[in-house]
Amino acid sequence: MFKPLNPLLHSELRLAVMSLLIGVKEAEFSFIKEKTGATSGNLSVQLSKLQEAQYIKIEKSFKDNYPLTKCSITVIGIKAFEEYVEILKSYIKK
Amino acid sequence: MFKPLNPLLHSELRLAVMSLLIGVKEAEFSFIKEKTGATSGNLSVQLSKLQEAQYIKIEKSFKDNYPLTKCSITVIGIKAFEEYVEILKSYIKK
DNA sequence: AATATTTGGTTTATAAAATAAACTAGTTTA
DNA sequence: TAAACTAGTTTATTTTATAAACCAAATATT
Predict the structure, then answer these.
(1) SS3 helix, strand, coil % of chain B, rounded to 5?
(2) A87 contacts in B (CB within 8 Å)?
(3) What are the pLDDT tens digits along chain B (94 aa)?
(4) Which of A8, A18, A60, A78 has its CA 20 to 30 A from that of B40?
């Protein structure tokens, strides 16, 4: 009846990150942090988990001497997000 | 940007329970258990939490000599559920 | 008539997740 | 050159979810 909700996406912060990334080409760590209101530590951990699942791609570089982390959603990530949203809708439409 | 998601409702099982209860007048423990696929223990714990928050009402009685637990959603619960759904939608619509 | 099984749960213990605090490595500013 | 800031990561703590064990009473079995 109630299909399982992908636990990787059923997390407030990771869901916010994915919701954000699905609308943009890429986003910087500090931008995501600001938009989600997350702490650096929490964001760092959650981004790593999303990367591990190959839902996002993380690219590290330097800009003006400072480290710069850019994230973008992958095809796998888009698919997982869309499926999660569909299942979620099936919950709340009852 | 991302409003906080009510943590009491952002739980797979509790969300399923609320989604179920919002559509019916009341439901028995075993019915909820069957529909959600939860174990008795987990369901018992989660129902208690929802009751504590006054999102549901739990009525205990006996039927054919056996204990019978009936649950129903409260006005507070309906309000919380609807607000949660609205915030959730604001996440996934970006 | 014991004893085993089932019902309808609750309680407790364990595993997993989220979050906060502390730390790293380097940069800039005073 | 020392203090403060950037941009994070790692580790520790707290919280949450889940599973396992348990309980009381009822019914079924031998």
Answers:
(1) 50, 20, 30
(2) none
(3) 899 999 999 999 999 999 999 999 999 999 999 999 999 999 999 999 999 999 999 999 999 999 999 999 999 999 999 999 999 999 998 6
(4) A8
- Residue with token string 């000599």: B65
Considering only CA atoms, give the Rg of chain A: 14
Distance of CA B39 to the CA centre of its chain: 15
Round to a whole number and report the distance in Å from the CA of B17 to the C1' of C9: 17
C-alpha distance from B18 to closest chain A C-alpha (Å): 9
CA distance B61 to A48: 49
From the number of C-beta atoms within 10 Å of its C-beta (0-12, 13-18, 19+), residue A88 rates as buried
Q: What is the pTM of this model?
A: 0.93
Distance CA A55, CA A81 (A): 9
Find the nucleotide nearest A42 (Cα to C1′).
C19
The count of residues in chain B is: 94
Pair of tokens at residue A34 = 């600001």
Tell me the residues of chain A between 21 and 80 that have a Cβ less than 8 Å away from chain B: 22-23, 35-37
